[in-house]
């Protein structure tokens, strides 16, 4: 069942979820983690991205640089299949547990958090291995 | 070694880290996870909170509601001891791996993400056990 909200037709099916979420400037942050507990990335979703993620079972994000909702992995094919959605105590953020295809990071690492801070010399260390070559995937 | 930056004395010791971070409206989001891979919460830090976190080895956050930097667990004693800091590929967010004392959530759960979305009936389910009674801890 669909109804008009503003200028858009939206499904009633997620009203219960959407009511619990606080969008700030239209966006809510989502921690993306895999089932083994590795944190992969932090994304931002608008209402439409939340709806598309749940409707398709694949994470969609709002890319500010593109000004639109995009399937995560649209170019690379490295999609994230949704296993579980959790909401924090305040409704200010989401946790999405996913099956990650290949890798989450466009620099070729499984996780975007591939740099570890070394306080001893105040530098960032690459502490993960590259799993794909970005120049081959993105051309 | 300290030097004057704006109106504040700051340590040079973290310039390498701070240079890599993009603060938006003065804040950067940090995913807080424990060593077992459980995502506990999403916090926001300003520069001072990053510095205090690294100097003390305990997570400090900027609480917008209080308008100041606070030790996470200041009231409850449920502090988070820092084990590792990671920076995402764009410098837009942090991942802090911690030893969590008792619980991260002021509602009494180990994680703030204690509610799971059930698409079948469009509701949120409590899927974690309470580990402390908030009324006893916060009075």
Furnish the topology, listing elements before pairings.
Two copies of one chain form a homodimer.
Chain A: E1 2-5, E2 8-11, H1 15-20, E3 28-34, E4 39-45, H2 47-56, E5 60-63, E6 68-71, E7 80-87, E8 94-100, E9 115-118, E10 123-126, H3 134-138
Q: Features of this protein?
A:
139 residues; alpha+beta; two-stranded antiparallel ribbon
What does this structure look like?
The structure is a homodimer of 139-residue chains. Chain A is globular. Chain A has 139 residues and is of the alpha+beta class. In chain A, a hairpin with a 4-residue loop joins strand 5 (60-63) and strand 6 (68-71). Chain A has helices spanning 15-20, 47-56, 134-138, and strands spanning 2-5, 8-11, 28-34, 39-45, 60-63, 68-71, 80-87, 94-100, 115-118, 123-126. In chain A, the strands form four sheets. Chain A has a four-stranded mixed β-sheet, with helices on one face. A two-stranded antiparallel ribbon of chain A has the order 1-2. The model of chain A has no long low-confidence stretch (mean pLDDT 92). Strand 7 (80-87) of chain A pairs antiparallel with strand 9 (115-118) of chain B, so a sheet runs across the interface.
Q: Could you give the order of strands across the largest sheet of chain A?
A: 4-3-8-7
Rough outline of chain A: globular
**Most extensive protein-chain contact, per-chain counts:** A-B, 42 and 42 residues
Query: In what range is the share of β-strand residues of chain A?
Result: 35-45%
Our measurement of the CA-to-CA distance between the termini of chain A, rounded to an integer number of angstroms, reads: 42 Å
Give the rounded overall mean pLDDT of chain A.
92
Q: What Rg of chain A, in angstroms, do the CA atoms define?
A: 17 Å
């Amino acid at each position: 069942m669909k109804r008009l909200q503003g200028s858009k037709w939206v499904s009633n099916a997620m009203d219960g979820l959407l009511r619990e979420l606080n969008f700030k400037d239209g966006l809510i942050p989502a921690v993306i983690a895999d089932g083994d507990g590795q944190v992969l990335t932090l994304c931002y979703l608008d209402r439409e991205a939340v709806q598309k993620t749940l409707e398709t079972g694949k994470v969609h994000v709002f890319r500010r640089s593109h000004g639109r909702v995009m399937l995560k992995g649209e170019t690379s094919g490295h999609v994230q299949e949704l296993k579980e959605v959790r909401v924090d105590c305040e409704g200010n953020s989401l946790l999405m547990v996913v099956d990650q295809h290949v890798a989450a990071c466009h620099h070729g690492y499984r996780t975007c958090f591939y740099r570890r801070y070394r306080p001893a010399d105040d530098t960032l260390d690459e502490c993960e291995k590259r799993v794909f070559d970005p120049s081959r995937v993105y051309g």
